[in-house]
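Risk register update: the risk of archive-format incompatibility is retired. Evidence:
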Amino acid sequence: MTLRARKERFGLTGFCCVLTTCVALGAWGCSSDAERPQGTPSPAGMAGAPNLPAVTHPDPELATLGSRETTYERVCARHHADAFSTALCDAGGHPPIPDLASLIALIGLGKERAFALSGNSTSLVSKSVSALNPRLLVFPRVGDDLAPPATLVAMGFVRGEQFVEVVGHDAVSGDLNFYLVRFEQRCSYDAAGCSLADLLTEQIEHDWTTYSVYDQEDLETTPFDCKSCHQPGGYGTKLMLRMQELTSPWLHWFPQRFVQQTDSDRLLSTEFMAVHQHDTQYGGVPIAVIANALDDGSGAQLEALVRAEGFADQPNPFDAQIAKEAQSGSSPTWQARFDAHLRGEAIAVPYPGIDVTDSAKRDAATRSYGDVVQGIAPRESLLDVRDVFSADATLKLSFLPQPGADGKTVLLQMCGRCHDGRGNPALPKNLFNVRKLDALSRAQKDRAIARMQASDDTRMPPWRVGSLTPDALQAAMAELAK
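Archived output:
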């Protein structure tokens, strides 16, 4: 079925842009000086932030790459030729980005754009994403003719961590450039660091004090490595946009209010609104826009962009056949995709059902969030709205190894995302290849064992990806001890 036919099936015709200006919508997160908490530096004072203290709890992986002006000057010195780099580096200095709405405007997505919310992700932030705390993507609108947008720039954001992902098309190289914008808040300088309320409520989207910026070259040495997912062909090949669930019914995307409403919209939008009904915005998009969105907010719009950019061939895809088979309780097609992941051949495949949450955890988190944002309960009582995954989803999304798996399978499943031999061979991390364990030196194996036993944030696998059960850890170490 063609893209247009799939759209017509759900009544997705006649694009209607309801995302207009900050004035018309009460702003995509716009805030005034009057709304800024006392003591927060104004946007005009953000150029170099020389008066700001050091971050008390910096990310250990990003801290080694520098911060603030150091990162800005390094990225700009590389002279990337995409819209984000141009906006960032050719404005006559470190442009102020005081909030998420300002970043959206800076990259050129302040007016004509589409958006989509995902209730399940296989990205860097997969352990944070559900309908309660979805991943937001903002990107250019594409018509039924699938003509590529004049300028490709897009961003991804999920609450819980102080960064935004940005991608742009380089007009010189013809390839994609990926960036991570790491912002700071006032709580970043507190002795205790930022609380759950600072990071998981609307507060995270406002009143940024300064920022750092990293590109794919910087991130390649860290667990934030964009290329581990976006360069599936291996070192030296072109990067790509990823959307594993590229076809209808877009099982994990919302809102999707076409003539025929999708099952995902009925379920995921309801869960989302139950949590965020008292918010003003999510990811810079007004809650009212999300609640009343028609075709401007959907997986179908993102599909159109991905196809327009020539990335219709997605590795290890989640296709319509899986959604159809899953209605009967199990999907052989999904299992085949998951088995490929267990062999270390691909990243995980999205969950075979619509909802990844546990109902009891979801209800408790929903009540807690509502009570805190309404001022009924203290901020420090907020439950972590990311900690809502069901036991089944935890296993099928590879947050934990499969029960009873042998050491080799554990290593392939939990380490293969980054250590599968496809990366830059000049980087030390790529010398550890779980698909060729027999070729590893004793020193390399011992270093891997030490990293898996570490008690700090350097422990492997990275906490954003997953963790090892005691039995899985023992099995993996026994395999490496051979």
